[in-house]
Write a structure and sequence with these properties.
2 copies of one chain form a homodimer.
Chain A lengths: L4 H7 L19 H9 L2 H6 L1 H15 L4 E2 L6 H5 L5 E3 L3 E3 L7 H6 L5 H4 L1 H14 L5 E6 L1 H10 L7 H9 L1 H25 L3 E6 L7 H19 L5 E5 L6 H4 L6 E3 L6 H8 L4 E6 L8 H15 L4 E5 L9 H12 L5
Parallel strand pairs in A: 1-4, 4-5, 5-6, 6-7, 7-8, 8-9
Antiparallel strand pairs in A: 2-3
Chain lengths: 341, 341
Amino acid sequence: MKNDLFLRALKGETVERPPVWMMRQAGRFLPDFRALKEKYDFFTRCQTPELATEITIMPVNQVGVDAAILFSDILVIPQAMGIPFEMKPGIGPWSESPITSSNDVQKVIVPDVNESLGYVMEAIKMTKNELDDRVPLIGFAGSPWTILCYSVQGQGSKTFDQAKRFCFEQPQAAHSLLQKITDTTIAYLKEKANSGANAIQVFDSWGGMLSPEDYQEFSWQYIAQIINALHDIIPVIVFGKGCWFALDKMAKSKASALGVDWTITPEMARAFTGGNITLQGNFDPSRLFSPIPEIERLATEMVDRFGKDKFIANLGHGILPNVPVENAQAFVNAIKNYKSN
Amino acid sequence: MKNDLFLRALKGETVERPPVWMMRQAGRFLPDFRALKEKYDFFTRCQTPELATEITIMPVNQVGVDAAILFSDILVIPQAMGIPFEMKPGIGPWSESPITSSNDVQKVIVPDVNESLGYVMEAIKMTKNELDDRVPLIGFAGSPWTILCYSVQGQGSKTFDQAKRFCFEQPQAAHSLLQKITDTTIAYLKEKANSGANAIQVFDSWGGMLSPEDYQEFSWQYIAQIINALHDIIPVIVFGKGCWFALDKMAKSKASALGVDWTITPEMARAFTGGNITLQGNFDPSRLFSPIPEIERLATEMVDRFGKDKFIANLGHGILPNVPVENAQAFVNAIKNYKSN
């Protein structure tokens, strides 16, 4: 690997500067992506390996990030499990038949991932070939809890109250669904590793909707299964948005790194995780709208506060679609130009 | 006051059991309210003192809560300041002319609250009369930051990215708007106290969207102005949803109580606030969908963990509209039947 900064930071090695990449760097803010978006619909872009490869590599070529992340979507998993999803204009992900009963859960399948998600593995192989070991490639999946949220709610939500209601009214059915998603996700991520991914990130986008106790019951125990099944094969990063309250337990797992959002200070994140595990984050995506000198100052200060080692510079959530490219570039450059005091 | 448990808990006095009320108890889940909703639109209900009074008193009569909270809306403040809002079906609050520039901010007025919000004061007087000192009456306002969120974004949002962009791109204009909202809010809450409200709650619903540093700059400094202007006149409760990271600073203010959501454990909330200030919360509103014995167990455990003193039992956010009345009643009863171990 020509640039292995990202993999070295995941191992906790001493580095000259932190690696940098941005969540949702592929398929959101670059003008070349937006041009592609006019021509092909969302799932066509995900399911056509040539398009997924092209989109994945764009931010490596155009912004110079230290890692690529495969262009795909967390909802390919419920789709493969027999829960249909489409992208509705103005709504986002939408399912015409969300899960509402234990009968529905029984009908959900644990698919052969090579059969139903072979297009993802194709895209990984093609991307690895195109990347030619310039930077590592990250594969990803949603956490089982986050996939349950969409599968039950049937669309995005501010509160995911229907998903939570399902868990609290029908906990057995919920756990049965979570286990099926977990089993599928483990098989899927193993196959991603076999296909050439260099690291895996689990996105627990909606873990922060749960109380600390419910988080352990409905989210963390399933993420822990995924980590335990994968960590010998490939480094695993877990990003739990809003999950500051669980960082102490997460830090005791075999995860190689933990993602944190911008509502926690670097000092609190280090304190809650015990100071030994690599952390990833946590620049507020909206702060990329600040004037460029302010972005540079805040990005540098972020590294000063996390420390340059055991740290992967990133945003605290996905980059926003309307961020000016030069602002994202200023963020990346500020990290790449970082010099310790 | 026949039942002064709530006011005694705000003073930190020793009580036989904690008081209980539920955020958004007025105007959401009761069938009688839903019948009224069919007949009158949202702002008619807010602006007609007879209707506001009827809705405010419903949960006192029907569920037996220990405090009433005036039926109203945080958006009556931007409306009075010249920023129009309507309730759009399927969207919620919506403004046809949100704030986008410093020019827009200059046009925003600081109104005479008695003139433009006299209907609120009428509703307070009428409600006080109807309540006849059975339980105290809470008045409320949104935090200046939360009002800015709606005024700039023009509607609800998962990220309030346009509101944040405005603050980060045009901080001077943002601070000018925040100060105008603060000045209006202080005048408004003073008048509520004069009209008979027994306590005030400031809802910082979107404070948790900000980093700890940005929270101090764009939210807390304005809430602190409100507390400083009010605390000699009336007890002030501050509820910052997702603002766990600021609890240490909030606890050093002159607020009588701090609201917390369900993503923080009682132990952490007590530790972060130093153990002396009254706390209010924090039952997950979705947990009211649990079977009734589970609600009773969790509500009792909540009091065990917070402790019966310096505690006001509540939800961690507003009650959901589709919660069965008997489940809400079970929550209230569990607190009212609480016996220390």
